[in-house]
Model the fold of this input.
Amino acid sequence: MNLLLSLAGAIDALNRLVGRVVIWLTLVVVLISAGNAVVRKTFHISSNAWLELQWYLFGAIFLLAAGYTFLCNEHVRVDILSQRLSRRTQVKIEIFGVLVFMLPVCVLVFWLSIPMFVDSFVLNEQSSNTGGLVRWPAKLLIPAGFGLLVLAGVSHLIKCAGYLWGRCSDPMLPVAAGAADMSADAASAGRGA
Done:
């Protein structure tokens, strides 16, 4: 179980790193969007490349941050009935939901999106808009984002099993993004001591 918990920790560290990058990517999208709007309204100049870059980055924010969002327990859950149950039963329902619903769908989307990306990359697919960007980077975001979400699901399953076996804390407690980062930093500092 220790090996699996270490694997879960490594997956969480990866999703935490991607989450930190995406946080800064949000600022980049805001600056590009604002700059694009100002140039378009002030100088009456527009560029399809800048517009497409906006939606590529916007897609990156949502797809790449899904695993981080799951790590922080910020995904939507339907808790109407399960709130009345014991925590152990809630964790068992969580395991069922991840195994039966989340992982199969995420693995399917991941698997089906790879050929779409590969075809786009091999053909060096270009935007149909004049002055647009190549399309394969946007298509790469789909398997990358769902791959990170699959890994987050596996990590969550490991932590749920660890909780049921008394080997780790409750994996379903809400974790603020900063708290997730600080607890990971504290855990790594404790291991280094």
User: Anything to note?
Assistant: The radius of gyration is 20 Å. The chain is about 75% helix and 0% strand.
